[in-house]
Amino acid sequence: MVIGDYSGYVGEAIQTYFDVITEGTLCEGASLEFVKVEPKLRCTKCGKLFKKQLLSFECPFCGGDGEPSEIGKEFYIDTIEIE
After folding, report:
1. Cα separation values, 10 from 43, 69, 70, 71, Å
2. Hey, which of 3, 4, 23, 67 would disulfide with 37, CB 3.0 to 4.6 Å?
3. Cβ-based neighbour number of residue 26 at 10 Å
4. Cβ(44)–Cβ(52) under 8 Å?
5. Structure confidence by residue, pLDDT tens digits, 28-60
6. Is the dihedral of CA 33, 11, 69, 38 positive or negative?
7. Gap between the Cα atoms of 80 and 83, Å rounded
């Protein structure tokens, strides 16, 4: 599963709920793997994506202002492996 830091979901909580709802099913005991996605800002001047630095929204490439992007809000199943 891919989970962005700004998605509002926590991997450990998802695993806990998954364990509860799969009890007594074929999926009982299955493990989930999580890929975290760090949020990125998009520069309003040059359009490049960058990681926000502490106490700053400044673009490290051109000095423009960064605004939130969709990167970091992901929440989806990337792949499923069945044996």
Report:
1. 28, 20, 18, 16
2. 4
3. 8
4. no
5. 999 999 999 999 999 999 999 999 999 999 999
6. negative
7. 10
